[in-house]
From TrEMBL:
This is Cysteine desulfurase. It comes from Sphingobacterium kyonggiense. Catalyzes the removal of elemental sulfur and selenium atoms from L-cysteine, L-cystine, L-selenocysteine, and L-selenocystine to produce L-alanine. Keywords: Pyridoxal phosphate, Transferase. It comes from the Bacteria. It catalyses: (sulfur carrier)-H + L-cysteine = (sulfur carrier)-SH + L-alanine. CDD domains: SufS_like.
């Protein structure tokens, strides 16, 4: 069904050769962060070995090549998400940083007392709290799109929430806790009919699903490098030029200015207006290698393989007595979140760790979801392209063993 050579792909991830607790590592915590292929590790070493220098400042050779390499990444991101212009790609520290930027700067320009912001019931805390802070500051109102038992958004309720008061709709493309793929094209279309902007949190989407920001007609789209086989400390904010130009800068400092006097400062043009100070140069430059890695495999191939693995794991986990899958949406990506009767997720996680199997347990920075399902948290196995059916078999055997010990 798939045309990827998974064993060859695994070979390119050196960490997958290591053991944990005397067992071969089975890494199923990819929703938290993915492992890095050798090409990314090599690029990081090459940067510090050959190129290290500040960007956007120096006249000297090294500064020029590092500046050029940083801008190569920007254009690579532009192509990757099919943005109309490279200056619509702002390099940030990550998804959280990108969302805070939009909440602060869009909020400053466009949100006033009595206005409404819509988020969904399945957001990561980073797509809840910045909007709550904005609402508190501006006396605006936060509204939440509810979801059903399967973890799918209630689109009728969404339509009822939308009005001319709605200034922003901020939703994730894929839920990190449930795996639900949300109908964002429809969400965007409906928001635009009311004149509202839409921010899509693509932190769990960009490594699994082809994204075309122009086709989606999305206003803002954000993601993190470290969840897409890239380095930590770098992320992206895509924003439509028209919005970005109307927004005030986020932070003041070097690089974001044109002229500074003590009387008045004029701001730099896009994208630099939103990139104050020295960025994470190494991560900005080497994100390029991560996107190359994804492009070489082909994101459609990655998705097809991961879908196959997800279906296999979903079936296989049914063998575990008392296991309840949390998040059973029809459209789902790469996440298996579950609880088992009579056990606590943490205890299962500890036993799996002894077997060399890395999963995440807890509320996954999405406490409101856990509240809705009336559970303390889940065990979450989240997939990447290097995972295999054999690893899923080991997970299922490990969960069975844990349940036998705990119940
Ligand atoms: N949104 C979603 C859906 C996520 O999964 C995460 C990371 N778990 C974030 C936002 C935050 O990303 P970061 O911690 O890289 O800023």
């Amino acid at each position: 069904l798939n045309n990827l050579d998974i064993q060859a792909i695994r070979q390119s991830f050196p960490i997958l050769k290591r053991e944990v607790n005397g067992k071969p590592l089975i890494y199923l915590d990819n929703g938290a962060t993915t492992q890095k292929p050798q090409a990314v590790i090599d690029a990081i070493i090459a940067y510090y070995t050959d190129m290290n220098s500040n960007v956007h400042r120096g006249v000297h050779y090294l500064s020029q090549i590092s500046t050029d390499a940083f801008e190569v990444t920007r254009r690579k991101v532009q192509e990757f998400i099919h943005a109309a212009h490279d200056y619509e790609v702002i390099i940030t520290k990550g998804t959280t940083d990108s969302i805070n930027l939009v909440a602060t700067c869009y909020g400053e320009a466009f949100v006033n007392e009595g206005d409404e912001i819509i988020i969904s019931a399945m957001e990561h805390h980073s797509n809840i709290v910045p909007w709550q802070m904005l609402c508190e500051q501006k006396k605006a109102v936060l509204k939440v799109i509810p979801m059903n038992e399967a973890g799918e958004l209630d689109m009728h309720a969404y339509q009822a929430l939308l009005s001319s008061k709605t200034k922003m709709v901020a939703v994730n493309y894929v839920s990190n806790a449930l795996g639900t793929i949300n109908p964002i094209k429809e969400i965007i279309k409906l928001a635009h009919q009311q004149g509202a902007a839409v921010l899509v949190d693509a932190a769990q989407a960009v490594q699994h699903i082809k994204i075309d920001v122009q086709e989606l007609d999305v206003d803002f789209l954000v993601f993190s490098g470290h969840k897409m086989y890239g380095p930590t400390g770098v992320g992206v904010l895509y924003g439509k030029e028209s919005w970005l130009n109307q927004m005030p800068p986020y932070q003041g400092g070097g690089d974001m200015i044109k002229d500074v006097t003590f009387e008045k400062t004029t701001y730099n043009e896009l994208p630099f207006k939103f990139e104050a100070g020295t960025p994470n140069i190494e991560a900005g430059i080497t994100l390029n290698a991560a996107i190359d890695f994804i492009n070489e495999l082909g994101i459609e191939n990655i998705k097809a393989y991961e879908d196959e693995l997800l279906a296999y794991a979903t079936e296989k986990l049914k063998e575990v007595d008392g296991l309840r899958m949390i998040g059973t949406a029809k459209e789902k990506s790469s996440v298996l979140s579950f609880v088992v009767d009579g056990t606590h997720p943490y205890d299962i996680g500890v036993i799996l760790d002894k077997l060399g199997i890395a999963v995440r347990t807890g509320h996954h920075c999405a406490q409101p979801i856990m509240e809705q399902f009336e559970i303390p948290g889940t065990v979450r196995a989240s997939l990447a392209v290097y995972n295999t059916k054999e690893e899923i078999d080991a997970l299922v055997a490990g969960v069975k063993r844990a349940v036998a010990m705990l119940v």
